[in-house]
């Protein structure tokens, strides 16, 4: 997907810390989830230290060096969902078996929107009725593609829950951690796809060792927005699995997939039904998660 860089930059570091110090969000993670490893997919979204930023002070006197860097994904000319013909995204639960072959691509973008520190994220509006102020804050023209993306992301976060769903949009790593703790406590695992080869589409064979990691999980999807926003939700009648894979070139991967036993409340026009030729309320539907999606399960 094409990206372009706005003229607003955001990178931060604690002004008073040494060059090897942990970032504030990382410190918060370690203090709240001391026994939980942070997936690389989240580590990649932490802002690196920046030594030549503008120094600002928050209300409590904490000093930061800040500059704003915002990436907006380009919208295509069509709103239709494009599914590559070969890549496996949705599949039936009955196909979740060793020796099954699926075509996958563990994609990773070189241009990503990173987390803002909570102190900054909380000062930026995030609601539909504040959209004009948001667009003005980021110097975005209301008629632009970037404005469409911002509007769509916020509306998705504000949309009513579907039956059996509980959702929350986290605008910082700290708020993401807080949401998970309110649901599961501090004894949790955070899981994401792991692959030796990224950005390469190839056939993968499912190996022995498929593991059901939970039937009570929080799935957090990274949204398209100026900075890192995660749409987190729990859905009834779902199970999450880790799936060991071996690529045609011999490279290994471990993918996360979620299987939905009850699809009766889904939109009949959902792309999964079109691909699998099934109907709402039919057989369990499974799908692989994107590489920037995080699954949380209680220990």
TrEMBL record:
SMART domains linked: BURP
* The name this protein goes by in its record: BURP domain-containing protein
Q: Taxonomy-wise, where does this protein's organism fall, top ranks first?
A: Eukaryota, Viridiplantae, Streptophyta, Embryophyta, Tracheophyta
Native source organism of the sequence:
Hevea brasiliensis (Para rubber tree)
Q: Tell whether Signal is among the UniProt keywords.
A: yes
Query: Among its keywords, does the record have Membrane?
Result: no
Report domain BURP positions. 90-299
* Keywords, ordered alphabetically: Signal
Segment forming the signal sequence: 1-21
């Amino acid at each position: 997907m094409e990206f372009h860089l706005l003229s607003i930059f955001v990178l931060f570091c604690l002004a008073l810390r040494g060059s090897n110090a942990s970032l504030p969000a990382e410190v918060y993670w370690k203090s709240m989830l001391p026994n939980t490893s942070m997936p690389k997919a989240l580590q990649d979204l932490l802002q690196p230290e920046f030594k030549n930023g503008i120094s600002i002070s928050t209300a409590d006197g904490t000093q930061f060096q800040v500059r704003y860097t915002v990436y907006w994904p380009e919208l295509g000319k069509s709103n239709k969902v494009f599914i590559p013909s070969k890549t496996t995204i949705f599949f039936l639960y009955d196909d979740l078996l060793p020796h099954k072959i699926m075509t996958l691509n563990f994609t990773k973008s070189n241009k990503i929107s990173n987390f803002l520190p909570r102190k900054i994220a909380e000062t930026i509006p995030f609601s539909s009725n504040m959209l004009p102020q948001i667009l003005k804050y980021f110097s975005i023209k209301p008629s632009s593609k970037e404005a469409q993306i911002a509007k769509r992301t916020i509306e998705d976060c504000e949309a009513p829950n579907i039956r059996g769903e509980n959702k929350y949009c986290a605008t910082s790593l700290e708020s993401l951690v807080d949401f998970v703790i309110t649901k599961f406590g501090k004894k949790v695992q955070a899981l994401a796809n792991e692959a030796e080869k990224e950005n390469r589409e190839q056939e993968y064979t499912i190996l022995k060792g498929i593991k059901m990691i939970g039937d009570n999980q929080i799935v957090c999807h990274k949204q398209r927005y100026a900075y890192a926003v995660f749409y987190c939700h729990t859905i009834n009648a779902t199970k999450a699995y880790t799936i060991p894979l071996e690529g045609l070139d011999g490279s290994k991967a471990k993918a996360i997939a979620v299987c939905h036993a009850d699809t009766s409340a889904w939109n009949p026009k959902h792309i999964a039904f079109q691909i699998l030729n099934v109907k709402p309320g039919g057989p369990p539907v499974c799908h692989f998660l994107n590489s920037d999606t995080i699954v949380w399960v209680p220990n």
